[in-house]
Each structure stands twice: as structure tokens, then as C-alpha cells.
Amino acid sequence: MSDVRIRPATKEDCGTIAALYRISSDGVADYIWTQSAGPGEDILEVGRKHYEREGLAFSYENCVVVEIAGQVVGMLVAFPMQVDPSETQSDPVLAPYSKLEEDNSYYICGMALFPAFRGRGVGKQLLALAEQHAREKGFSKLSLIVFEQNTGAKRLYERSGYREVAREPVYPHPLIHHTGDAVLMVKEI
Predict the structure, then answer these.
(1) Phi, psi torsion values for 165, nearest 5 degrees
(2) What is the number of other CB atoms lying within 10 angstroms of the CB of residue 6?
(3) H helix and E strand count, the chain
(4) Whose CB has fewer CB within 10 Å in the chain, the N or C terminal residue?
């Protein structure tokens, strides 16, 4: 599509990135941001501040945004994943995702489009861009985690060459939108 522009994110995009990451995480971001929200603080504001930080994995610096007709309608956040085997996640809600992290991979942490802009092939473009970035950074594989119940996303990843390599049961929590398993998918490049 000629009206689609993908560009590096800026600090000014962080509010929209937070809204899109919230969509992509299916409740995980809500859970994390609720933990650090102050009394009465909106979790999207927490997310915005989260992505405004610099020099960290969860930063606008590791995001690209999708613009259609000048409006930010999508995002991708991806970064190098290095797993420290001595670190364990003690929070039972977050532990399944921590267990699924793929060491020495380029990790697609989140990818989302607002619903009105889906079905236009932009997801495929974002996955191709992530693969290009992984190659440029010297990685031979990409990884991502998807809920097994998110069948549309899982199908997109499979069609793009990702394969399931592990799964962990989702810890039930009212903020997490899915039950069943979280699935680690990896693509060798």
C-alpha cells in the first residue's frame, strides 16, 4: 500500500505505542503497568512513561511505528534477547513468559495495529522489517511469544516461517485475556 509509512518511533509516539503495546500484550502490559501505577494513575500513562525511557529494551528506541495518512496506527517493538540463566521470575503471572525467552535471538516483543487498519498486509511488512533488523544486528534467529488462543496472529507467524518450539501454561489472572498456553515461536534466518 502506497499510503503506509514505517518509521523509527520518537518520544512523541510513546502514548500511542503504549496503547498499541497494550493491544499486543493481551493483558500482560495491563498487569505489569498496574503493578507500578501510583494511586489513581492511568495505566496508559504508566505505559507512556515506560516507553519514554532510553537505553532500555522497553523504549521507543526499539520501536518502529506505522503511519497511514499521517496517523500512527501500528507499531513493532523488537530487541536483542540475552537470557541470564541465573535470573528467575518469581511473579507467577509473568513466569511463563520469562521461561519462554529464547537466548541470543532478536525478540519481537510486541506488534499491533489498531483494528480498523488490519488485513492490509502491514503485519507481514513489520515481520520482514524485524528480520532485516535481526540480520543487520548479526542474529541468526528471531523469536516471539504468542497466546495459543490468538489463532490469527499464530497463523500469521506460521505463514511467515516461525515454528513452535516450546509452550508454557498461562497463569490465570483477571487482567490476562487468554488461558491455555503461551507459545514460543522461532524463525531461523
Answers:
(1) -125, -20
(2) 16
(3) 6, 7
(4) N
SS3 (DSSP) at 183: strand
Cell of 179: 488461558
Q: Which residue has the cell 516507553?
A: 51
Alpha carbon separation from 78 to 29, 143, 169 (Å, rounded): 15, 9, 23
The residue among 127, 87, 123, 91 whose CA lies nearest residue 107 is 127
Cβ neighbours around 109 below 10 Å, total: 19
| Cα–Cα distance list, 106 to 54, 102, 186 (Å) | 19, 9, 10
Report how far residue 140's alpha carbon sits from residue 123's, in angstroms, rounded to the nearest whole number: 21
Contact 93, 126 (CB under 8 A): no
d(CA 17, CA 75) in angstroms, rounded, equals 6
Residue 111 carries which side chain, given as an amino acid letter?
A: M
pTM for this prediction: 0.94
Average pLDDT by stretches of 10, the chain with 189 residues: 87 98 97 95 96 96 96 97 91 96 97 94 96 97 98 96 98 96 98
Return the axis-axis angle of helices 43-52 and 28-36, rounded to nearest 10°: 90
**C-alpha dihedral, 130 to 135 to 140 to 144, nearest 10°:** -10
Residue 66 and residue 4 in contact, taking contact as beta carbons nearer than 8 Å: yes
- Sign of the dihedral defined by the CA atoms of residues 66, 59, 48, 157, in that order: positive
